[in-house]
Specification:
about 450 residues, alpha+beta, Neutral Protease, domain 2, 8-stranded mixed β-sheet, 5-stranded mixed β-sheet, globular
């Protein structure tokens, strides 16, 4: 477990998101969703701890379209205002520094994505069902939260929907109860989770178990892997995701034990521009199937995020390359392991592409405008490859495994990685970090293996 890194008072890229004056350690969400009318009724109960100062008022992020049915803090009605996506709450009496407290919010409305430069984020109504794709600030589209990636908490999520639908949430299904024509699905995610990584998928799916060899970290069983797929696409899914169990085994060898209890994959009955990353879960679109493994690199990328981004999380969005660079490099490692192009070949191809493009991206602080630019992913992969060349094979892979073990379920920054990597070599790595992360100009292609 890593030591908590100090997150900035406000996120430099999203200063309106979150409230650094307290921390949440558990959310208990209960929502009733009606797909035909796109109506959501919810209750959110948060268990939290006040910061260093008396807490006379605190904020939750909740999209503006919801109607509030009441706010209670420590069992007493609280004064509140809800404007421009901010729910400001004033407890009946101020909370003492370091005091544990609970807040309960009841709300109803028609959830819709939160607008952003990347399009709608969060709760998305599908042709038949719904899904949640919140990265980076879409979580308030469906529940009140302290929307900061560093404020990680455990979750229990109960979703009631018509019984003809399957509901999938990242975590372990602990109860499923049917009453009349509705079914309530209750999922538990005990591992600390960032608010944007909590997802819900509601659709007409058939479940499939994917099994591999027993994990050497738990010889009694492999990591449980379940897929939820439209029935007509099961054959294609079997080909396109057929190697995911071997991928899990390989990533456990390279990155260390899988950090969660299980892993779920959903194929939504809709085309999606990109897969949706979430804690213990990933959502793909029908366009990612085809029976030819044409999206297998994305299967690897989303699985790798369980280590890089989900278990080891960023303190704020300036450090997004730590998630995407390692996930991109995982694609290249899997390709090499599975008999495709080597990581060195992938690095050379990525370098050629980047060399033709503008050199205005600073990897360790890309700015909000470029934080999901394709170049960040490829240059991030190249930065990881440069570390591999600088450290050498044995030290590099020990470094990677050490990173995921030491910071398991923790919060990190780019400086955390620099300090960590330096422990694995006597040679200074400042030049590597300066060239690849802090200088926008593309340095020479790393060679040496």
């Amino acid at each position: 477990m890593s030591h908590k890194q100090a997150a900035p008072a406000t996120d430099p890229y999203f200063p309106a998101s979150g409230d650094p004056c307290y921390r949440v350690h558990r959310y208990e969400l209960a929502v009733d969703y009606r797909p035909v009318s796109n109506r959501l009724k919810g209750t959110a109960r948060l268990s939290a701890v006040a910061g260093r100062d008396p807490l006379r008022e605190f904020c939750l992020d909740l999209a503006a379209g919801f109607r509030l049915g009441g706010v209670v803090v420590d069992g007493r009605d609280a004064h509140w205002t809800h404007r421009a996506g901010k729910l400001r709450i004033r407890p009946a009496k101020p909370l003492e520094p370091g005091a544990a407290f609970t807040a309960e919010v009841r709300y109803t409305g028609n959830p819709k994505p939160v607008g952003s430069q990347w399009g709608g984020l969060g709760w998305e109504e599908l042709t038949d069902g719904a899904l949640v794709a919140s990265q980076p600030v879409g979580a308030p589209s469906w529940y009140p939260c302290n929307d900061r990636p560093a404020d990680k908490a455990s979750y229990q999520v109960a979703v009631t929907a018509p019984s003809s639908y399957t509901v999938v949430v990242g975590g372990r299904l602990i109860a499923r109860t049917t009453r009349a024509s509705s079914t309530t699905w209750v999922y538990e995610q005990p591992a600390p989770t960032s608010s944007y990584l909590v997802t819900v998928s509601i659709g007409r799916y058939q479940s499939v178990r994917l099994t591999g060899r027993a994990s050497r970290f738990d010889p009694r069983r492999p990591v449980p892997q379940t897929a939820y797929v439209p029935a007509r696409l099961l054959a294609e899914f079997g080909t396109d995701f057929g190697r995911q169990p071997q991928m899990m085994e390989f990533f456990e060898d390279v990155f260390g034990a899988y950090p969660f209890e299980e892993y779920a994959v959903v194929v939504a009955d809709e085309e999606l521009d990109v897969p949706v990353e979430a804690q213990g879960m990933a959502t793909f679109g029908v366009n990612h199937l085809g029976g030819r493994r044409h999206s297998e690199r994305l299967v690897a990328h989303e699985l790798a995020h369980q280590w890089f981004g989900n278990s080891v999380s960023i303190a704020d969005w300036r450090h997004i390359w730590l998630n995407e660079g390692f996930a991109k490099y995982a694609e290249w490692l899997w390709s090499e392991h599975a008999g495709g192009a080597t990581a060195t070949e992938h690095a050379a191809d990525a370098y050629t592409r980047l060399a033709r493009q503008r050199q205005d991206l600073r990897l360790d602080d890309p700015g909000r405008r470029l934080m999901f630019d394709d170049r960040l992913y490829e240059r991030g992969g190249l930065a990881v490859h440069a570390l591999r060349v600088a450290l050498g094979e044995g030290a590099f892979f020990r470094m990677i495994k050490g990173w995921t073990v030491i910071h398991r379920h923790g919060v990190v920054t780019t400086d955390s990685l620099a300090a960590h990597a330096q422990q694995y070599t006597m040679l200074p790595l400042d030049g590597v970090f300066e060239a690849w992360l802090r200088n926008p100009a593309l340095p020479p292609l790393p060679t040496g293996r």
